[in-house]
Design a protein that fits this description.
Layout (H helix, E strand, L loop, with lengths): L25 H13 L5 H12 L5 H13 L4 H44 L3 H24 L11 H17 L4 H20 L2
Helix pairs in contact: 1-4, 2-5, 3-4, 6-7
């Protein structure tokens, strides 16, 4: 991630094409990520994709898939990593810090309040059942968003078929065989990088 004061320039549109929407200021960046964070209960991937790609159009689907992949393998929460990458892209180090603050400030206050409430009702069977139901909804949101992004893989250097095979192998290793996620990512990620490097080599 570049930490220069101005940050790398955003991609220029082709001649005659409309300019890509982008955050107008640090304030716009802060409130955009604050609003995004406040919607992220249970299925943040779905919210991030809808807000950044479909509504604000700060990213294309292909860019989102690529940046999300990088955010996934970096240490820390993936949506936090992605927010800092986007903030840095437009405003450098200041943008990264503002995006990070937007992602954390309001949710921190809400989570602390909910933690106090949960401490009083943690033993309730109804609360436990409600949380299990929320978990099922969150899984559904993530699955639906993944299916929505499949079309972006058609332009991937590996090809749609190879990407699906790798995704199925990852699902099998993590969900069915219960293998450690870090080892699955290291093994399959290395294979995917090697294949992409080979196909992109001149």
């Amino acid at each position: 991630m570049s930490l220069s004061p101005a940050g790398p320039p955003a991609p220029r549109p082709a001649a005659g094409a409309p300019a890509r929407p982008q955050p107008h200021s640090l304030t716009d960046l802060f409130w955009s990520f604050t609003w995004l964070a406040l919607q992220g209960f249970g299925g943040v991937l779905a919210v991030v994709q809808r807000e950044l790609v479909e509504k604000k159009r700060w990213m294309t689907r292909e860019e989102f898939v690529e940046d999300w992949a990088v955010a996934q393998i970096l240490p820390g929460p993936n949506v936090i990593n992605l927010s800092m990458m986007i903030g840095d892209r437009y405003f450098g180090l200041r943008g990264a810090l503002v995006a990070l603050t937007g992602m954390l400030a309001a949710p921190l206050v809400i989570v602390l309040g909910l933690a106090l409430v949960y401490a009083h009702f943690a033993g309730s069977a109804q609360v436990a059942g409600a949380l299990r139901g929320m978990g099922a909804v969150a899984a559904g949101l993530i699955t639906a968003t993944g299916l929505k992004l499949v079309s972006a893989l058609r332009t991937n250097p590996l090809g749609l078929r190879t990407c699906i095979v790798l995704a199925l192998l990852c699902f099998t290793g993590v969900a069915l065989l219960r293998l450690p996620l870090a080892w699955v990512l290291l093994a399959l990620g290395s294979v995917a990088c090697a294949l992409a490097w080979r196909r992109l080599a001149p």
